[in-house]
Design a protein that fits this description.
Blueprint (H helix, E strand, L loop, with lengths): L30 E8 L2 E8 L4 H8 L18 E4 L2 E4 L12 E3 L1 H4 L7 H8 L9 H14 L9 H4 L11 H13 L24 E3 L27 E9 L3 H8 L2 H6 L4 E8 L2 E10 L2 E15 L4 E9 L5 E12 L5 E12 L7 H25 L11 H31 L2
């Protein structure tokens, strides 16, 4: 089998799945409401009739695991499951997906709980650049789900030829699929990551509404901010837990926490730009991850204010002009210590989409950890002096991001040195 081999004449992944027969008549730029379920989450999106499903999944829902290659139905990179059958997302108009049940590669498994196919692909080194991997995973899932009896080693290359790979030579891919088929003769497990969750679209997409709870869209620059932000659901991109010992008394720390303007200025790169009333605020924040510098405009809402327990909870969400979006649920708790000082605990669940979500969790988590540590120190200083930092004062988000990058490189070098020493020790035995 070669990468130039054409897919079979009519494989399952080339056919438009049954049920996609919704007649639509609309103007070229008219937006149409389309409702379907993706990875267990009911959603409604607004798209033009000409938008294909691949673009809708990536842009309107932030599901960038579905890769787009040729967009002519040849390469198979965009393969997804629609009502249980494989389909090329670039050959299906989004409006045709009305009422269907879609599974993308994100629904197959997670980093912590991988599907057997994902585990086998990793074990057999069945990926190199990784661009074709989502298509192969979904196509092989479809094959193993619908295949009757044992796989035929002679015909397996043809069965898998609907997805093209220009890196691996296919051997590891075929071995991975064969391995999973042998390990699960009675059928492979269903997708492991299909459950209602928050889906945040990327920049340029029409507003996305979910039947299940999801974050409200950030108002672009209008004053019609949503009456209430909705708590994100599903698995966060990362979680942050920081505990910091402050020298100031707990009442002084709470005075800062209870003043949103001063509190916002304690977070490096952040500032409050408008008080919208009812504990809702508009603001902006600058963040840096390595060479990527981001400037978010967004909204925040205090959901709990407990003076007696010195506890503050808030929801925040923002977007930049480059298609990056973030939503976070943050809880701050100040506790008096026997020595008269304060222990400040910050817990955050962060949801990311866009290119910022492509950074490793370790790096993003390290940057978030450092931001909260600097925030706690600024709260302590403000509690002592009564004066919040000027906007832009203190360590910049760029400097914090650079330090996180350096720390990540040092950790990686340390891991490599350990691996080299371990390898030498084994060879000397």
């Amino acid at each position: 089998m070669t990468t130039s081999q054409r897919p079979p004449a009519a494989p399952a992944a080339d056919a438009v799945p049954r049920g996609l027969q919704r007649p639509v008549k609309a103007a070229a730029d008219e937006l149409i409401d389309v409702s379907f379920t993706v990875n267990g989450t009911p959603v409604t999106i607004q798209v033009a009739a000409r938008v294909h499903l691949g673009d809708a999944l990536r842009t309107n829902l932030g599901l960038s695991g579905t890769h787009l290659g040729c967009e002519h139905g040849v390469c198979g990179m965009c393969t997804v499951l629609i009502d249980g059958d494989a389909a090329r997302a670039c050959l299906v108009f989004a409006v045709q997906a009305e009422g269907t049940d879609i599974v993308t590669v994100e629904g197959l498994g997670t980093q912590e709980a991988q599907h057997p196919l994902q585990q086998a692909f990793s074990h057999h080194h069945a990926l190199q650049c990784g661009f074709c991997t989502p298509g192969f995973l979904m196509s092989s899932y479809d094959l193993l789900t619908h295949n009757e009896g044992a796989l035929d080693a002679e015909t397996l290359p043809e069965e898998m030829s609907g997805v093209l790979c220009r890196c691996t030579g296919y051997r590891g891919i075929l071995e991975a699929v064969t391995d999973v088929a042998e390990a699960h003769p009675d059928g492979i497990p269903a997708p492991l990551n299909c459950a209602p969750r928050t889906l945040v679209g990327r920049g340029g997409g029409a507003p996305t509404a979910a039947s299940s709870p999801g974050p409200a869209e950030v108002a672009d620059e209008a004053e019609d901010a949503p009456a209430e932000l909705v708590r994100p659901t599903g698995t966060p991109t990362l979680t942050v837990q920081v505990t910091r010992q402050l020298s100031s008394p707990v009442d002084d720390v709470w005075a800062v926490m209870d003043d949103v303007d001063r509190l916002a200025r304690c977070l490096p790169g952040a500032e409050m730009t408008a008080d919208l009333g009812d504990d809702r605020y508009r603001g902006r924040a600058k963040v840096s991850l390595g060479p990527v510098r981001l400037a978010f405009e967004g909204l925040a809402q205090i959901t709990e204010r407990d003076p007696a327990g010195h506890r503050l909870a808030l929801l925040a969400q923002g977007a930049d002009t480059g298609g990056n979006r973030t939503a976070a649920e943050i809880t701050l708790r100040a506790t008096a210590t026997p020595a008269g000082s304060t222990e400040l605990q910050a817990d955050a669940a962060v949801f990311l989409s866009g290119r910022i979500a492509q950074f490793g969790r370790a790096l993003a988590g390290d940057v978030s950890q450092r931001l909260f540590e600097q925030f706690a120190d600024a709260v302590d200083e403000t509690a002592r002096t009564g004066t919040a930092p000027d906007v832009g004062a203190g360590p910049s988000a760029l400097a914090i991001g650079a330090r996180a990058m350096v720390a990540a490189v040092r950790r990686r070098l340390g891991q490599l040195r350990t691996a080299v020493r371990t390898g030498k020790g084994r060879r000397s035995r």
